[in-house]
Amino acid sequence: MIFKKVGEGKPYPDHGKQTPRDWAEVPPRMVRLEELITTKRTLDLGQLLAEDSTFYGDLFAHVVEWEGELYLEDGLHRALRAALQQRPTLHARVLVLD
């Protein structure tokens, strides 16, 4: 299994981080793919395989830690690329919500 769980939607409260600039305040760290719960059930295969898919966005995935769980809010394609390359971890910005 790649992820802890495949979810649909964001079960945590709105955190107000909308743009890559907002997320830039959150320092990146390594997270294990097996600890992540996705917030999306589907992906675009073209985006997964695109070489420049992060050209206009953040280089790091966006994860929200809420109630002891790690939710992959943005970066599903990066996480799957890491899994396909047999890497068990991913660099992500982890926002901790109380």
TrEMBL record:
Residues 1-21 are annotated as: Disordered. It comes from the Bacteria. InterPro entries: VapB-like_prob. This is Type II toxin-antitoxin system VapB family antitoxin. It comes from Pedococcus ginsenosidimutans.
